[in-house]
User: What shape does this take?
Amino acid sequence: MKVSDAALLKSGFSHADLQKLKNNIANYGGSLDSVTHDLANRFNASKWITIAAFTILVLTLMLASIDTSITLAATLAIVLPFIWYLTPAKLAYKSWRYRRLTTNSKPRQ
Assistant: This one.
């Protein structure tokens, strides 16, 4: 699948977002297709890590002591923003949304 600037702009990317993607390509190689695919995968990984972390927190709140729950909540308050910082959340979400829209809009045979 060929990803174009126009398709990305139409799906919600800004010109600044496109420039960030192009700078990444210039520095590390690849194509718009590979960069959006990688960012979409990073968004999915971050999303599932966050869901799992909050599920564990809820179970801990229900089953463990208050001290353990507070410690886990504090740890998550430190770790999760760090994970989302490492995954450029805004670009990753836009890439995931673009991939989802293009995947769902393909005609089925």
